[in-house]
Known about the structure:
By secondary structure, the protein is α+β, with helices and mostly antiparallel strands. The radius of gyration is 23 Å and the shape is globular.
Amino acid sequence: xxxxxxxxxxxYEHYEAVVVGCGPGGAAxxxxxxxxxxxxxxxxxxxxxGSKNVSGGLIYAExxxxxxxxxxxxxxxxxxxxxxxxxxxxxxxxxxxxxxxDLTGLHEHDTDWCDAVLRRPMDSWLEDRVHEMTSETGxxxxxxxxxxxxxxxxxxxxxxxxxxxxxxTADVVIAADGVxxxxxxxxxxxxxxEPEDWFQGVKAVVDMDPETVNDRFDISEEEGVAHLFSGDxxxxxxxxxxxxxxxxxxxxxTVFHLDSLVEEEAEPHELLDALLTHPLLAKWLGxxxxxxxxxxxxxxxxxxxxxxxxYRDRLxxxxxxxxxxxxxxxxxxxxxxxxxAGALAADAVAVTxxxxxxxxxxxxYASMLEKSGTMEKLRPKRYEYSSRVSERSLTTKAVxxxxxxxxxxxxxxxxxxxxxxRRAYNSPGLVGMLPDTETGYVTLPSIIGAxxxxxxxxxxxxxxxxxxxxxxxxxxxxxxxxxHIRLRDESFEASGAAVYACPVSAxxxxxxxxxxxxxxxxxxxxxxxxxxxQPCVECGTCAVVADTEWxxxxxGKGVEFRxx
Length: 564
């Protein structure tokens, strides 16, 4: 929604800066603005920060980054993170055959530290710190308020509009409102047109007491592990799985290219269950399984959508709102880039205060992102060059043909290849060139597992909850009478992909958001799609794959994540 005022309209509350969203990007922006003495109001859609946020999640502190989260919040690691990642591995799976590689070299490249986090406890802690800091400059944090659009005057952005309160004007607006940013879309900077531009992540937080975590992963209380999974356990869907150790739980999930989910008509909850029930996980999960929370989100593919000029007028985008999520094979980094972007955006605002050009801060921000090296990480030139050849259909078919032949198996299956593969997995340059095709996610890992892997003999006895139980265990404050999604076209051709791709829907499940049925009209049959937004986890998947009108629920309404 966008509102345009006549030039003589006045009287709205005004701040020097408004930050929308109090995740790591918004918190970083607000803290730096407070350091500069800029009057800053932070708006948060959830009942508290983190209640609407989901992440894998690992947060990095890169040596080359101009800002890290502990630069801005010195107590962060002691108070807001879970465990440091001290062991990082990838598992190539072919049935029960698994070949694992140590990714220490890749993980420690340009890394000062890396911690596992859960978004609800992390973001709520950040919110408290941010409120203290911004209150000292005349602002603060206001939660339970949804920014639904931009306020304009004579076509120029001057503030933000809301569902719950009057519009607020500002000298600058920093949108850190996530992957489904209504402000970015209102400004025409982001859209939901192409499924290949997005990943979908689905996650289960699994209860496990600290002593059991330590014992099963052979670590101390000051250590943690990260495991990645690829190969044939996800059929032909392009993507993979992850497992991270938290203080007293595990984060286990999957991340897939959205277009691949649609093409394969794969159901996200079943792909997650394929990982949870694989024999490899039996030694870590044991014979009992207690799932605390099920969640999902869209993830931008920065290689394709990270904005080189993430601004318009007085609006600056940071984090997922600007497509700043680095997902290149086993390199998965987002929150650290949001922190960098938020801090740089704040610095750009501070040094351009008083300039008459409404885009002065945005131009400075874009320049700082480029000079800091952040944009090269998000949109590496080596990928842009290599993908022009490696992602062509003829190239993919040729490579797949060779790999699936006896020649391919022989080439991958010898000891020299094993050593070369180990080195390749730990090369940031080569990983950054990995094509977004089935070859890197499914075919090659499956061959590696088959040719070099060990056989997993034990059985996995755990039974994940049903989709109905997962939805039932979530906390909702349903906004009765105000659905936040509307189907524009109920035909299966236009919107049927949501029946499969929505993480709380399934073809054989009648209790999710999207359902399909065959109806008879005037003697002919037609397959139609219906929608119920009550069990929605607000991931935004259907906005991309179905013909919908999509927006967030009003402030504090909808799903509330306890873990995130």
